[in-house]
Amino acid sequence: MERWSRGDSVLHRRHAAVKILVALALLISIGTLTSHSALAGALYLALLVASASAARLPVFGILLGAAAVLPFAICFAAVSVLAGEPAQAVLLIVRTWLSAQVAILLIATTPMPRLIAGLEALHAPEFLLQVMQFLYRYLTVLAEEAGTMLQAGSARAGTLRTLRFREAAAMAGVLFARSYARAQAIHQAMIARGFEGRLPAIRQAPFRLADAGFGAGAVAVVIAVRAVFRWA
Amino acid sequence: MGMMVEVRDLVFTYEDGTQALKGIDFELEEGCTVALMGANGSGKTTFIHHLNGILRGTGSVIVDGLPVTPPNLREIRKRVGVVFQDSDNQLFMPTVLEDVAFGPLAAGKSVAEATERARAALDRAGILHQADKAPWHLSAGEKKRAALAGILATEPKLLVLDEPTTFLDPPGRRALGDLLADLPQSKILVTHDHLFARRLTEDAAFFEEGTIAARGPIAEIVQRFGW
């Protein structure tokens, strides 16, 4: 996803705040789809596929990536089926899959620092942005530590296929403790450099006329699709 | 020349009851460099964390004429630049340039000035070409340089480096030594690598169980303590 976000296309070059707003409009529209507006859903899917293609992203990769949320959707859909509403179940799955594609397309065309800057421009809660930023920064570090622990385990156990719950739980506990210790060390490094609660940013990109045009046009298309097939 | 660091009778005990510092007296003149040596757990890192107020024990700690007390911490942290042992803990922003600009921004500089300082610091550290990269894409040596650039951007008067040669290969160590030798700031190096230290200073303080057991030429310290 990070590699995709470093691409270059019309979509990549648009201001993050505008893309977030367009994504929000799309999510709202998809979230309010009904069984009577199924064609609107199909059009949205076509638009998403076209956008991914225009952004030179792997379309199948995005469709497949979005399918990661389906197990959760299927659980809730099963409840609808049991309640005697199979149409609602299908709608739930479709909405979830389309929404996931919107999110993936946004992240795949916007490097995380710019995405955070866009949310900042839209006055998202600062605490939330800090959590996002640190999660993004240190997820790879944690993954490396977890990988090292697994390697060490393999080196001593021959294979981890028979890793028992007790050992796995112990590893998870140690990883948590290491993460906590690292968080303390990071905090010390931050206050040593003058951190006083706010992460200053230099990453605000300039807002261009093309961004305004893109935003207005994209939201107009989202609304038009629903208007043609009526808000039901 | 004035004193950059003056410490008198510094005592510090961790929350778990471990007395890490047992009455440290220490001085460093302006413009000078000293190596802090000693076994793991002897109190070196605990000591340097008192120089910018991360830890606060009893006793007196004065840096560049300012007592290290809460009202002075903001100013002290502009004057004292600490390069931590693990660069990953220090490079906490999404890109190298943002990270290096963090210090000047936190000190109240404008975005333009902070960015300019950051670029100058990265250039000095020899990694300006990595400015837009994510820190986890850097090699160990590049991370160390980026961490150092982050400190240089704030133009501190005292540089404190905790095990600066950790994770560095020999060429990396030599390059870092060359870079540090060119910097005019007072320096405190926490290091086990006495050969690296001798490139920058002949003065060493040997920590032992929370006290400074000896201070003098590195060669004598190494011989006396079998280092």
What topology does this entry show?
The complex is a heterodimer of chains A (232) and B (227).
Chain A: H1 2-5, H2 10-13, H3 16-31, H4 38-54, H5 59-66, H6 70-82, H7 86-108, H8 112-121, H9 126-157, H10 165-192, H11 209-228
Helix pairs in contact in A: 3-7, 3-8, 3-11, 4-7, 5-7, 6-7, 8-9, 9-10
Chain B: E1 3-13, E2 19-29, E3 33-38, H1 44-48, E4 58-63, E5 66-67, H2 73-79, E6 80-83, H3 87-90, H4 96-106, H5 111-125, H6 140-152, E7 158-162, H7 170-181, E8 186-190, H8 194-198, E9 203-208, E10 211-217, H9 218-225
Parallel strand pairs in B: 3-8, 3-9, 6-7, 7-8
Antiparallel strand pairs in B: 1-2, 1-4, 4-5, 9-10
Helix pairs in contact in B: 4-5, 4-6, 5-6
Low-confidence parts of chain A lasting 5 or more residues at pLDDT below 50? none
Number of distinct helices of chain A: 11
Give the biggest beta sheet of chain B: 6 strands, mixed
Number of domains of chain B: 1
Q: In the CATH scheme, what's the topology name of chain B?
A: Rossmann fold
CA radius of gyration of chain B is 17 Å
How many distinct beta strands of chain A? 0
Q: Class of chain B, according to the CATH hierarchy?
A: Alpha Beta
Taking all residues together, what is the mean pLDDT of chain B?
92
The amount of beta strand of chain B, in percent, is 25-35%
- SS class of chain A: mainly alpha
Taken as a percent bin, the fraction of beta residues of chain A is under 5%
Number of H/I helices of chain B: 9
Give unreliable regions of chain B as ranges. none
Mean model confidence by pLDDT of chain A: 86
Largest sheet of chain A, described in full?
Answer: none
Q: Can you write the helix and strand succession of chain B as a string?
A: EEEHEEHEHHHHEHEHEEH
Shape of chain A: globular
Biggest sheet strand order of chain B reads: 6-7-8-3-9-10
Radius of gyration of chain A: 22 Å
Helix content estimate of chain A = over 70%
